[in-house]
């Protein structure tokens, strides 16, 4: 079963599951975002989701975290059914920064909407249900980290989030790096605010996007191809 938990230093979330859980999520991502030419106005959002997909795929291959998890098989059950079997399953996991996974939950709303418009029977599309669970897990994990009143505001903002065509994805890099640099206590206090900023595309985002557009316009470069002049740390204290 796919699970999501807050990391010890509140830096991000740990996405965990067995091989099939993670592979199912990856397949759902690819299914709804389409190929690189399908939703060109969402090319930046597609790139960010593929970044999470990359981490999940490598986790499923055993390149990230590997842990054993109790599977519910007690000694009494073994005796009852007369067989020998391990009482733990192997789970794989990877960490994703909070701003990154919050943005993914929002961006996937757009891809799901676009996919539903193209599909003949979207209500029966298993991939859409996998995506919905992923989004719900993100918000459920966030629920345990912010005050209830703030969480209700975030839910409303996520529900009413405007479409994110040509989103300035560099803003997520900006928030990621800013969040990494915060002390743990400040992360705890800032997480709800960051979630609201991502969902509402507030004045800070608008000002940031205008700067990116100013950099992109002279050479007619697509907005998602402008690079933020900063680097992520080599090691992150999750």
UniProtKB/TrEMBL annotation:
Pfam family, one: DUF6904
Biological source species: Planococcus shenhongbingii
InterPro entries the record matches: DUF6904
Protein name: Uncharacterized protein
């Amino acid at each position: 079963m796919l699970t999501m938990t807050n990391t010890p230093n509140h830096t991000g979330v740990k996405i965990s599951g067995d091989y099939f859980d993670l592979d199912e999520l990856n397949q759902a991502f690819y299914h709804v975002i389409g190929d690189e030419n399908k939703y060109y106005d969402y090319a930046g959002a597609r790139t960010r989701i593929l970044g999470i997909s990359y981490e999940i795929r490598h986790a499923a291959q055993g390149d990230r975290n590997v842990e054993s998890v109790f599977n519910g098989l007690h000694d009494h059950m073994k005796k009852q059914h007369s067989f020998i079997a391990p009482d733990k399953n192997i789970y794989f996991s990877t960490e994703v920064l909070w701003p990154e996974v919050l943005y993914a939950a929002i961006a996937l709303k757009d891809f799901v909407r676009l996919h539903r418009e193209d599909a003949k029977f979207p209500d029966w599309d298993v991939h859409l249900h996998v995506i919905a669970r992923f989004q719900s897990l993100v918000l459920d994990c966030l629920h345990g980290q912010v005050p209830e009143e703030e969480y209700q505001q975030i839910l409303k903002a996520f529900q009413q989030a405007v479409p994110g065509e040509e989103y300035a994805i560099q803003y997520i890099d900006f928030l990621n790096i800013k969040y990494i640099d915060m002390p743990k206590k400040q992360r705890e206090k800032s997480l709800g605010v960051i979630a609201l900023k991502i969902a509402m595309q507030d004045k800070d985002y608008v000002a940031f996007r205008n700067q990116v557009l100013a950099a992109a316009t002279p050479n007619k470069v697509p907005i998602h191809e402008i690079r933020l002049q900063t680097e992520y740390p080599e090691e992150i204290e999750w």
